[in-house]
Amino acid sequence: MKRETIALEAGLEELPRVAETMIERIPEDAVIALRGDLAAGKTTLAQAIAAALGHDASVTSPTFSLQHTYSPRLFHYDLYRLSFDEMSQLGLLEEFERPGWHLVEWMDDRLKAFLAAAGYNLWQVTILPEEDRRIYRIEHLNA
To answer: Is 53 contained in some domain?
Structure first.
């Protein structure tokens, strides 16, 4: 089966369009890796997604808390300083069993392989800077 990949170019003011495209294409139960360099806009994209889903809560990077829950079906993780083994020891792997969207910044390859092997619906959004705009490459990883 061929992987589905969508590429969108957008500036900050066009992020709602990127979020809406994701909502149209990605099932409501999915783990979504947000991939990009520091300051690429991962948390900014999470803010746009939360707004498009009707959540008006403040969306910030969960750098120190590791996870924020914005609604019963929207979760946001920052795993920058956490290994797969540490996630397992903390019981965070079980969080992915909760229904909804799980937005994961800094997902490592071991976690990605584990989730794919366990049958989770796994997507990735790669954010690439392009001057004052970004290219958002949205792909289904286990299609």
So the answer is: yes
